[in-house]
């Protein structure tokens, strides 16, 4: 993992690593960080790649649901923060590409410059929204429009190791397994390097995966299937699982419990043992590394006759 404040990481290396993970025998787990620090923590736990979800980008940037309210640049900022914090492969949820082929072209080149390993484009019609919001009807664009977006994305990328994934919401829209397979096959034929189909119906997902019959890897969301094991997912025919909201849901529950008690009692004494310490937090953010680097170069500058700056103390409190 990259370590602040110097990021020793290569976007191309991360992209090649993602391809390696996607082609491995084991199912790749792609949890969705809600910010840079949650990504750092998960990298330390051992996760090797991340989902830069539009839902999380919208929730953390605007405090709203996944309702096409975030712009391309806001989602870009969210995904790039995860890339920059970890140096690990990040799969960026690029929604519908934020428009037609011209907008897709700009999106691909902007996200690629920021170092993401893969981008996912979907076939929802604008304004799009989370596929799991039953309250909103799902409308899809024509296959030819989606193919145009995919071919644009593939043609304008500057690094051939950058993966372009296609997402179809045909199952979630109630169009059935046959239509889903037709769309997914069309997108794979257009060059998509992985296929993601979200659905809250496990039987539909199993039927779709069993009828796939292509070498292009399949990806599923476990929003509604958190209890599925990796062996079960592999047996169904999927190469990767997304867990878009698991991290933020756990974090919000912890905040709710600790801060509700604080509000009730006026004390944080009960939080001991249930929270990271300030020292652990500072270490996770690379403060010791920052101090060592600054000290090293300030010493060199002093030797050259320059006036040194203040070197922060590792024992200082971190407000």
Tell me the layout of helices and strands.
Elements: H1 11-23, E1 28-31, H2 36-45, E2 50-52, H3 54-62, H4 72-86, E3 90-93, H5 101-113, E4 118-122, H6 143-156, E5 163-167, H7 176-189, E6 195-196, H8 202-210, E7 218-221, H9 230-236, E8 240-243, H10 246-265, H11 278-284, H12 287-303
Parallel strand pairs: 1-8, 2-3, 3-4, 4-5, 5-6, 6-7, 7-8
Helix pairs in contact: 2-4, 3-4, 5-6, 7-8
Structural notes for this entry:
It is a single chain. By secondary structure, this protein is α/β, with parallel strands linked by helices. The protein has two domains: 11-244, Phosphoenolpyruvate-binding domains (TIM Barrel, Alpha-Beta Barrel); 276-312 and 315-319, no CATH class. It is built from twelve helices and eight strands. It has helices at 11-23, 36-45, 54-62, 72-86, 101-113, 143-156, 176-189, 202-210, 230-236, 246-265, 278-284, 287-303, and strands at residues 28-31, 50-52, 90-93, 118-122, 163-167, 195-196, 218-221, 240-243. Strands 1-8-7-6-5-4-3-2 form an eight-stranded parallel β-sheet, sandwiched between helices. Helix 5 runs parallel beside helix 6. The longest helix is centred in the last third of the chain and has 20 residues, at 246-265. Mean pLDDT is 91; it is low at 311-319.
């Amino acid at each position: 993992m990259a370590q602040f404040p110097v990021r020793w990481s290569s976007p191309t290396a991360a992209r090649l690593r993602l391809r390696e993970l996607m082609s491995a025998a084991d199912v790749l787990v792609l949890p969705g960080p809600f910010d840079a620090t949650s990504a750092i923590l998960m990298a330390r736990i051992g996760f090797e790649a991340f989902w830069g979800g539009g839902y999380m980008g919208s929730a953390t940037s605007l405090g709203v649901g996944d309702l096409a309210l975030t712009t391309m640049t806001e989602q870009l900022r969210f995904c790039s923060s995860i890339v920059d914090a970890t140096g690990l492969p990040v799969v960026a949820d690029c929604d519908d590409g934020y428009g037609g082929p011209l907008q897709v072209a700009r999106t691909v080149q902007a996200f690629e410059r920021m170092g993401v390993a893969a981008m996912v484009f979907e076939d929802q019609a604008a304004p799009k929204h989370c596929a799991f919001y039953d309250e909103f009807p799902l409308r899809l664009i024509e296959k030819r429009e989606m193919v145009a977006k995919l071919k644009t994305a593939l043609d304008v990328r500057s690094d051939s190791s950058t993966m372009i994934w296609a997402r179809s919401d045909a199952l979630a829209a109630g169009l059935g397994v046959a239509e889903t397979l037709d769309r997914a096959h069309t997108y794979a034929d257009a060059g998509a390097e992985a296929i993601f189909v979200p659905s809250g119906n496990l039987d539909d997902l199993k039927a779709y995966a069993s009828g796939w019959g292509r070498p292009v890897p399949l990806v599923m969301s476990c929003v509604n299937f958190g209890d599925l094991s990796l062996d079960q997912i592999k047996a169904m025919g999927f190469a990767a699982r997304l867990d878009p909201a698991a991290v933020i849901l756990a974090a919000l529950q912890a905040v709710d419990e600790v801060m509700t008690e604080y509000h009730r009692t006026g004390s944080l004494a009960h939080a001991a043992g249930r929270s990271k310490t300030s020292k652990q937090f500072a270490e996770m953010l690379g403060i010791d590394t920052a101090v060592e680097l600054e000290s090293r170069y300030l010493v060199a500058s002093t030797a050259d006759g320059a006036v040194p700056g203040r070197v922060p103390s590792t024992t200082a409190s971190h407000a």
